[in-house]
Amino acid sequence: MATSSTGDVDLTLTHHGEPITLTFAQDATIVDLSERVTSELSIPPSNQKFLISPKFGLLKPPFKDPTLPLSALQGKKINLMGSTTAEITSLNDSISKAAAPRRPGPLKAALPARNRDWKKVQEEAQYTFHTLRPLPYLPNPDRSLRFLERLRDDAGIKAAMRTHKFSVPLLTEMDPAMHTTHESRTLGLNRNQGEVIELRLRTDAYDGYRDYKTIRKTLCHELAHNVWGPHDRNFWELCKQIEREVERDDWTRGGHSVGSQEYAEGPGEEVYDHGGWTGGEFVLGSNGGGGETVVSSAGGTVQAGSLSRREILAKAAEERVKRARQAEESSRGSGEAPS
Fold it and tell me: Structure pTM?
C-alpha cells in the first residue's frame, strides 16, 4: 500500500491469487474497505476475511475496531478471503442438481461372468459417493477432483462404505476461507446426516493440498456423523472403528501419486468439525449466527423434504453397475481375459 501524491491511500489486496488495488481517502477506515469490497467485488460482509500480516492477523466484519485507519495498514500484506455472490450461487446450483430427485429405470439383472464378484460390484455401486464436486472458482479444480476420486476409490474407504452401508449423494471440497478462526479450522462438515460431506482439501493459503491421510481420517470422522450427530461415546466408538477398518483394508499403503501430482503421507493434524449434521437442511451462503457460513433451507435452495434419497441412490447405483458390465463385455469382445 502507498500514499499517492494527491493524499489518497492506495491499498492492494490479494484475492484468489490476483492483486486488486483500491484507492481511498486519507481518513478512510477498515469499514470503508469492507464496503468497497462489497460493492466492487460482490463479496458480502458475511463472507469477508482479511488476513493482514504482520501484526493484525485475521479481521472480519463486524470489526472489533471499526475506526481502524487504512493508513495504518501501509506496508502490510493483505490477503482477502471470501466467495463472491456469483460463486456461492454456482455452488448452490451444483448441490441442488446433485440432490435433485430422479426417476430411476428398472435395475437389470447382472450377467454372470467368470472371476467377477457381481455382489461386490453392486454393493460398491450402491454404497459410495455418487457425485464428486470440486469448487469450480478455485485454482486447478481438476486436481481437487482427482483428490476426491482418490478418496472415493481408496480400498479402505470402499470396504468401510460397504460394511456400514453408507451412501453419500455428494462429496465436495470446502473453501479454506470458510469456517476459519484464530483458534481452529474446520476440516470437514456433514450435511443432513450424510446428504453432503465437505472436506477441506486445500491449505489455508490456497497454495497446496493437505496431507492425504489427514483428509482420509477427516472423512472417517464425517462418515461416523452419518449415524451419530453429537461427539458422544457412541460417535467416537464408531469413528475409531471406521478408522481401524480403513487402515486394515487399505492394501495399497505407503505413498501414492494422483496424476502427475504427489500427495504427502505425513503424520497428519488434528481433525476439527462442528459436531455433526444440522437438522436436515442446507443452503450455502446464509448467515446462521456466530459468523459462520451455514446451510439452511430457509433460502429455498434445497428443500430436504422434497428429496427422494432412494431414487437418487438407485439411479446412481444402476449407472455404475451398467458401466462395469460394459467394461466387462468390451474386455471379452477384444479377446482379453476378464479381470
Answer: 0.48
Domain with CATH 3.10.20.90 in the chain: 2-81
Half-sphere exposure of 336 (CA within 13 A, CB side): 8
DSSP state of 14: E
Q: What is the set of active-site residues?
A: 222
pLDDT greater than 50 at residue 10 = yes
pLDDT (tens digit per residue) in 253-263: 544 444 434 34
Give, in words, the CATH class of 2-81: alpha beta
How do residues 90-101 score in pLDDT, each as one tens digit? 877 777 777 666
Whether 209 shows a pLDDT value over 60: the answer reads yes
Determine if residue 254 is left, alpha or beta; phi over 0 gives left, psi from -120 to 50 gives alpha, anything else beta. left
User: Exposed (0-12), middle (13-18) or buried (19+): which is 210, by Cβ within 10 Å?
Assistant: buried
Backbone torsions φ then ψ of 130, nearest 5 degrees:
-80, -25
pLDDT 10s digits, 163-182: 999 999 999 998 887 766 65
Residue pair 112/332 in contact (Cβ under 8 Å)? The answer is no
With 0-12 / 13-18 / 19 or more C-beta atoms within 10 angstroms meaning exposed / middle / buried, residue 308 is middle
In 3D, which of 153, 155, 271 has the Cα closest to residue 210? Answer: 271
Give the three-class secondary structure for 256. strand
Judge whether 104 and 42 are in contact, CB under 8 Å. no
Give the span between the Cα atoms of 284 and 261, in whole angstroms: 30
What are the distances in angstroms from CA 128 to CA 131, 134, 163, 251, 287? 9, 17, 11, 18, 31
Cβ atoms of 198 and 170 closer than 8 Å: no
